[in-house]
Amino acid sequence: MDYFAGYMKLPFLIVLGLVISSNIAVSYQAIGHQLQHEILQEGTKRLIETYGSLIRKKRADPCPDGSQVTSSSIQDPLFPVMYPPEVLDACIDENTTVNNLLLLGQSAITKQQMLVLKSKLTKVYPGGLPDNVIAKLGTIATVYNDGEILQWNITSLQTFAAVLKASDEDSMAKAIISRYMQLGNPLNATVLDTINSINNGYVCLLDESQLSTISPQAIRTLSTPIDISTCTQPKKNILFNTSMNAFANVTNAVEKYNDVLPYIGGASADYLKALAQSSVVMDVSKFLTLNPNETQKLSVSDVQALLGNQLIALKNNQDNPAVKAWIQSQQQVELDKLGAGLIGGILDCPSDKQITSQNVGNPLLPGNYPAKLLDACLSNDTLKNNLSSLGEKAFSEEQMNVIKKRLSQLYPNGLPDDVLRNIGDIGAIYSLSDINSTWNINTPETLKTLLSFASTGERGKTIILKYLRAKTPVDAATLNVLNGYDYLCLLDEGQLSSIPPAAIRDAKPALNISTCTQSKKNILYGIASTAFADMRPYPANYYGHMQPYLSGASADNLRSLAQMNVSMDLPTFIGLNKDAVMNLTASDVIALLGNNLPDLQNFLDDQLVLTWLKKQNQSDLIRLGLYNSGLFPEPPIGYEIIPSQSAKNAASSSKMRFPYMIYVVLASIIVIPLL
């Protein structure tokens, strides 16, 4: 109640201060500036000392008497209701939080209450939670984000299991496993069994690089095999290969098959073909989990031998990706021989419809060959030898998918550079993901061809980045291609920084950097200045080569250039970096523009020129030849503007307003101790 009574005095103090202030105003104005400052400083200090505690008391919500959190109150079933977040924050200290963390982590508290407890723990452990504390977090662990989890010190398997069990999101589980691995704990059989016992899908959350660290011994000694059903195909492939190494010494085909069966979804076509030659009969449910890219490489006889009497079951699973891919890669006549009712295979081509090198150039070919007929009548040899001609045809999406499928069969390791150079419009059927995974672009010529067919900037950028992964650093030929399609500025700053000076020197024509960000322009200017450094003794030549890159020049660079008497033209000047220009003096600009200085008069509506000129004084405008431009209504030298009486009154009022308020505060401070 004391601080409430204090607040009740404030209105009285302010009124009293207003009265006193009128008497001390003249005295305050009469003293020197330094003394005014000292009085104001001391008054502020007195005001804070007097009322600071009242403000703090008002803002802080103290714990009600007798409500401090104890072990007993935490065990009360009504604890979450009795202590809403604000009360909990006031009534539980750091020691109580740490000493009762296990109980708190098991109580049915809300996320907001958990955040209160988290803040208490952060104060105690600012460098990250230790292992013994993490083990007791329980549900409180769920309010820590992934970045904070990566600071935890999870050293024991028991703590790892406890906090992983409390995880409520996949991203949190991945962060916990990743942190445990970072601290030197490998994914051995014990760790993997622990993960599987909590959630058998968590292993598939890990990155491919993390899964690659699993040893064959770990796979071989697992109590329960890893469930790979939710893994991506590349992850399935990794785990299958590890399992093959794990059981490499098993010579019996059936026994080995049973050992690697949990990971069969990553099996290669070579393994499946070999399996078909053994006595193993694969259950059709396992066939459905195979990689479609591998089943399409199997022949009819391979699958017949692999499934045996279960082959008939494929009829009811023709929409399954693995089955569909296999059916579509087989001749329909061969599928018919199985008597399983499978449809969708490659049709036989009528003798008079075969596509050859002689008729492949017919512009009516797309209209004469629907997708299925195209698939039946286009041999791999004809496709391979006439891709350029086919790439010029107006095929439908379905027809292009046929050709895409056939190309993947011809080039299972990805499309080589010479094939991509001739792919033409067929390349449009490849997604951005396809480009990243199956295209091998190695030459500037192929890059140029592919960019000419790129329908969007995003597609063009994907093609460029794919190329750059195999072509670093960037050479002049590559720069010429990127420059020709205005893709240069799509490169990131790291890629631009890797461009050697010789590449910029040899680029023809000079690079267009107008669409680049300022930071990228700065990088390119720096490289260009190195590339043409040997031309500095010849100012006109140097300026001519550097001109396309001057928008990345700093103020110091421009001053240096001004000393070379280059007479910069105004179109180049207005394209300079604004920050650099704003740091130039009138003398700098006069030297920089040289003989072109009079042209400045013609660019007064340019924003850069206008902004810079407004920073100059009257004498500089005269030197620049702009004293009569009409843009700057300053009086001639020797004259001054006489303000009106109303302006004087307004200025006087504004000057008095602030000191008067100071008098009020000071008066209040002087009276406070007397009450």
Task: Report on this structure.
The protein has a domain at 2-59. Helices cover 57% and strands 0% of the residues. It is built from 44 helices and no strands.
Lay out the secondary structure:
Blueprint: H1 2-30, H2 33-59, H3 71-75, H4 79-82, H5 85-91, H6 94-99, H7 101-106, H8 111-124, H9 131-134, H10 146-149, H11 157-166, H12 170-182, H13 189-198, H14 208-211, H15 216-220, H16 233-246, H17 253-260, H18 269-276, H19 284-287, H20 292-295, H21 300-307, H22 321-328, H23 332-338, H24 365-368, H25 371-377, H26 380-385, H27 387-390, H28 397-410, H29 417-420, H30 432-438, H31 444-452, H32 457-470, H33 476-484, H34 493-497, H35 501-506, H36 518-531, H37 539-546, H38 555-562, H39 570-573, H40 578-582, H41 586-593, H42 607-613, H43 618-623, H44 645-671
Helix pairs in contact: 1-2, 1-44, 2-44, 5-8, 11-13, 18-21, 25-28, 31-33, 38-41
What fraction, in percent, of the residue positions are helical? 55-70%
Total strand segments: 0
Structural class label: mainly alpha
- Tally of helical segments: 44
Our Rg estimate from Cα atoms comes to 39 Å
The poorly predicted ranges are 1-60, 636-675
- Mean pLDDT, rounded to whole units? 84
Q: What amount of the residues lies in strands?
A: under 5%
Terminus-to-terminus distance: 17 Å
3D shape = flat
Largest sheet at a glance? none
